[in-house]
Amino acid sequence: MSSWVITGVSRGLGFEFVRQLSENPSNTVFGLVRDKAAVESKVAAEIGRKNIHIIQADTTDPMALEKAVQYVSEKTNGAIDYVIANAALQSKTALVGFDTLSRDPKALEQDMIDHFRVNTIGAVHLFNTFMPLILKGRAKKVIAISSGMSDPEMTLKADIWQATSYAMSKAALNMAIAKFCALYREKGVLCMAICPGAVDTGSLNIETEEEGQLAMAMFGKFKQYSPTFQGPMKPEDSAKSVLALVNKATVDGGYAGVFLSHTESKPYL
């Protein structure tokens, strides 16, 4: 029996993690979300399994996370095997660069703060809060869902000037993983960051023709970086690939503290 704590499971990749992991009745899956009622209804309608627990908890709220830990601890006798930090913010500012964002310095600063608060600080709070349960678990795996956009090499190869705040916050997340690894590797905890590829999650919420054109321009950069890129992956395909890597990776196998593509090789897409 394995226990999983996953954030950001209301849709996309996170929801697919819950779907695939709950297929094994011996797994217990805890999904942390901001709107419990809505996600419980969705899970009941689209998955309908009893080994799924949806918990109200925003990762940027340490007190909410403490309550989540208490709930999970009661259900698992104080131990969990896996934590996946999947919750993320990627706003429409991802479609433009610093040249556009700099027209409103205060808005730019707030955009950066918002992304770091969710994508970096939220994950740090999550890992710190659940680490006592991880240390008592069997698998002892702490996973951050990152992005190839965080890699300077990818940025420079195709001059990808978009997704400034998102990319920077994910790069900081990768460093956080390295720091957690340095702290807990000797205790048998695997900490690693994984890029799931470009996944169709609807996070950009494209509504206008101009936004569609900007999105296509960004996808054009992706194809320049990786000529085989044919568009975003389906969440189910990405989730399957990420979970295969999570199950394969070990502390002593060269995975500790690293940032890798779900395919274990570049390009990330």
TrEMBL record:
InterPro entries: NAD(P)-bd_dom_sf, SDR_enzymes, SDR_fam. GO terms for molecular function: oxidoreductase activity, acting on the CH-OH group of donors, NAD or NADP as acceptor. Coiled coil: none annotated. It holds the Pfam family adh_short. It comes from the Eukaryota. This is Short chain dehydrogenase. It comes from Lipomyces tetrasporus.
